[in-house]
Amino acid sequence: MFELLLPFFLLALFLLLISIIWRINARKYISSDTVASAYDAWTEDKLLERLWGEHIHLGFYPSGKTNIDFRKAKVLFVHELVKWSGLDKLPKGSRILDVGCGIGGSSRILAKYYGFNVTGITISPAQVKRARELTPSGLNCNFQVMDALDLNFEDGSFDGVWSVEAGAHMKDKTKFADEMMRTLRPGGYLALADWNSRDLIQNPPSFFENLVLKQLLEQWVHPNFISIKDFSNILRTNENSLGKVSSENWNSYTNPSWYDSIIEGIRRPFVILSLGPMAIVKSIREIPTILLMNWAFRKGLMEFGVYKCRG
């Protein structure tokens, strides 16, 4: 009898262990310092880079197709957002600010394929260091440690401002928008993508949905989520946007990313094993949050908002 129950016991024990690790290592937002520390850790252990490549953001799957390589889908996302936002209308040599640049994947594409002169900023020193290491000499990219809520640039310094999946880490969404619009020159292009919740006032979350949102906030250092409509209104009321703001929900194009982000670990098991035993624990530790993200985006509790406007 015990032998029959042993596999179930071991599975229960394993799940309990992961649950404990998940809770102990929760990454609650306290300040911008906690965001910096989390991204420093993610960068230095090299797990995400080895599994997902140079882009931590989601991929783009045309018409929801899933037979696309995860890394190629991430590159395609950059090109699709460039085209949708009108950023490709800017001439070569245009100055672009990449807010929340990570390890520079998008910045390098913007510089290499479109000839832009890109400045990437992130609050993580480890990301800046790695971005510089990955950037070939001669490519017009430079990277700096900087808080997106206090950009150290003059008004109108850039022809285009780019930001992908950074705003969810910003406690003050209005300040985040204001700083980007302040540094965008008149007539310049803003291209932005972010994780949003649905309109929780118009459509209040259930008890279970509240629990899910709480976990999504606490596990990946997010202070709060707001709806696509609310962030669009913040952009529209900025004195430099003149109300010329458009937004869309790209859930149907990006949702396959969640399962693919897990499957990459199955496709490349030796990548995880090569980083040592703790990499295995860290990989498994992220799976519950990824599955919750997948559920939330597929059910419409979360939405992948894209935004464009002219300065």
Q: What string, H for helix and E for strand, traces the elements in order?
A: HHHHEHEHEEHEHHEHHHHE
| CATH superfamily membership | Vaccinia Virus protein VP39
Strand order of the largest sheet: 3-2-1-4-5-7-6
Q: Radius of gyration over alpha carbons?
A: 20 Å
Number of helices: 13
Structural class determined from secondary elements: alpha/beta
CATH class: Alpha Beta
What's the end-to-end separation, in Å?
71 Å
Q: Give the amount of beta strand, in percent.
A: 15-25%
Helix content percent band:
40-55%
- Total strands: 7
Outline: globular
How many domains make up the 3D coordinates? 1
Description:
With 311 residues, the protein is α/β, with parallel strands linked by helices. It has one domain: Rossmann fold. It contains 13 helices and seven strands. Strands 3-2-1-4-5-7-6 form a seven-stranded mixed β-sheet, with helices on both faces. Strand 1 (95-99), helix 5 and strand 2 (117-122) form a beta-alpha-beta unit. Helix 1 crosses helix 13 (277-299). The longest helix has 23 residues, at 2-24. The N and C termini lie far apart (71 Å). Residues 12-16 have low confidence and may be disordered.
